[in-house]
Amino acid sequence: xxxxxxxxxxxxxxxxxxxxxxxxxxxxxxxxxxxxxxxxxxxxxxxxxxxxxxxxxxxxxxxxxxxxxxxxxxxxxxxxxxxxxxxxxxxxxxxxxxxxxxxxxxxxxxxxxxxxxxxxxxxxxxxxxxxxxxxxxxxxxxxxxxxxxxxxxxxxxxxxxxxxxxxxxxxxxxxxxxxxxxxxxxxxxxxxxxxxxxxxxxxxxxxxxxxxxxxxxxxxxxxxxxxxxxxxxxxxxxxxxxxxxx
Length: 246
Prior knowledge:
It is built from seven helices and eleven strands.
């Protein structure tokens, strides 16, 4: 509902601005009808009403962070937070399916989150895309191919532990175990990446795919709501899941 209200408001703004391009560009504006003027006023009133509603929704506080949650660094606190949000919701959405790995692309996280109050608008700015939560099963062989891509671009992940030296991967494990090329692993990600976006080609043509009706943005909002309802703050952290030595 929050998303629909926001996009309806944006649609009204676009319609209003586009309609102006069809006004006559001549000097006979005295023929501009009362009916057209009334419609213009009506549109302004409607936009104003939706603006109030949108502001009420987007300015809603859904969490509180002990510090700024940043996307900087090889392992980012922002990436870790988003991966936590995806896993929390995936465990509820894809019941009875164990989750081995969570992946999200670094470029998909558009802004940092501030210290203090976290509002709905902050999450819209963080994740403005209409991407859905999705689950795929792929082979260990494909996952190993993906580990290289993940490492090169420093994409956020959960479930894996990657060690590298002199910019080369020396170890990649899941729960302390080396990735088995023959094993099937369950990966939670966005539909954009599952279809090969941002060079995540290793996720294409999986053994199985489970879709959801949850937007990644809504997943993050739900996770913030969960933390707040349980009187927990957002705590920026890194835990050494990506270790790079020179």
